[in-house]
Amino acid sequence: xxxxxxxxxxxxxxxxxxxxxxxxxxxxxxxxxxxxMKRSPGWLWRTIWKVGREDPRRMIHAFKVGLSLTLVSLLxxxxxxxxxxxxxxxxxxxxxxxxxxxxxxxxxxxxxxRGLGTVLAGSLAFLIEFIATKSGxxxxxxxxxxxxxxxxxxxxxxxxxxYIKKNYDYGVVIFLLTFNLITVSSYRVENVLxxxxxxxxxxxxxxxxxxxxxxxxxxxxSGEDLHNSTVGKLEGLAKSIEACVNEYFNDSELKENQExxxxxxxxxxxxxxxxxKSTDETLALYASWEPRHSRHCYRFxxxxxxxxxxxxxxxxxxxxxLHGCLLTEIQTPRSVRALFKDPCIRLAGEVTKALMELANSxxxxxxxxxxxxxxxxxxxxQDLNTAIKSQPRLFLGSNNNQANNxxxxxxAHAARHxxxxxxxxxxxxxxxxxxxxxxxxWKTKRASEQxxxxxxxxxxxxxxxxxITSLEFSEALPFAAFASLLVEIVARLDxxxxxxxxxxxxxxYKEYNPEEDEIIVKCEKPPVDVxxxxxxxxxxx
Length: 541
Prior knowledge:
Strands 1-2 form a two-stranded antiparallel sheet. It has 22 helices and two strands. The protein is 71% helix and 2% strand. It has 541 residues and is mainly α. α16 (341-363) runs parallel beside α22. The chain is extended and about 95 Å long. It has two domains: 28-216, no CATH class; 222-250 and 264-394 and 472-507, Up-down Bundle (Methane Monooxygenase Hydroxylase, Chain G, domain 1). The chain crosses the membrane at residues 59-77, 89-108, 138-158, 170-188, 200-221. Keywords: Ion channel, Ion transport, Membrane, Transmembrane, Transmembrane helix, Transport. It is found in: Membrane. Its main location: membrane. Pfam families: ALMT.
């Protein structure tokens, strides 16, 4: 049975008047939903296993958060504690949820900010309340409103100060919240002082539990994360350069890698470096709050790690450009690449060795090997230079016949399409007819000319591409870009070595000892803090 539902559209209806297509769509959706529900337990288990395997400390942190919430819940569950604190115990639970972070530095930063903001806000609120109670009710309301306006405006504006925004932004937010809660509620509530005391005690209890869990129960240090991430970035760059050069001179097709660049090991090696700016700055900030927990109790210059990360990002941009040479449309023939394979692979191998030596020196907290820039690196550079000079015809081009032929072809093409308007369209003002047949004839010619013009627009880029690829010296241009980037990597390697050596000098790294028989610590002066806005000490807060 066919029922017309719209003009020009018909659909099949079943006995109940429901369209068959609608019913089939619902069946497909139910089948897909049931399939997803069947696969969800396996997907959930794989996700849990993957997250825990990537970083086992995540399970430890989850355990610490659960234990902290259980301990703070005792303020509610145990009758003696509940009678002493009352419903204000909820502030302890909120403090644990908000303050307890993954690393000890982040927890210290938030906990001390919360405590400092609460103390300052409470003290100022009690001062405002003491002054307001000495006046009448109307003046008291006006005075409280004016105080809230002034303090709120001033504190909010201070959040834009770079130093405060970097170190105490969360504390200023807590200050505003606590000050307004106490000041405004004091106008209607009689025993606001007792409520403020109870809330302050519960916040202190919550912060104490968070600090205990962060510092004493399997502590996770932001400084160690920053240290290890710097080592990982150096190793990732080394692997990327080595894999990039090996793949460039490999006989496999390069277009296969172009389709899956996101899974490319070269891409994975430098991706962590390019995305590390915000992570490094955050870890360095949290590390500056952490107590000295190293073996020698030195305060490491975490901001110098940020400088090393900045130099590595500049180094990584060159690696990205080197990787781009593998994905260009015009590639140097394999026969030409084979002429320079050995010196390029040797040069990349020496750069890789230098980066791995830098990574090991930071990992072991020792100075770099004196031979990090060995003679082999300079010999590889010299060999590459000699190989390029031995093939001047590839880069300068001794045969100009093809170039002249292509230039002549381009000139002829331009002359053919720059004819006078009369010759191009085949019509002049004197030959225009006024009857309808002439008008139709003119329209037909006009349409054919427009079609030819569109065809010429399509052929122009093809002609340009043929002209580029047929020039003899253009075969070596892609390799010239690849070789120049490889030499640029060697040049930028000096900046990386300089920053790593500066890090070792400031942090008092031990001297390089190949036998590792003894630990020699060289430190001309006590470690200094290179962070511009780093606090000298946080215990006094």
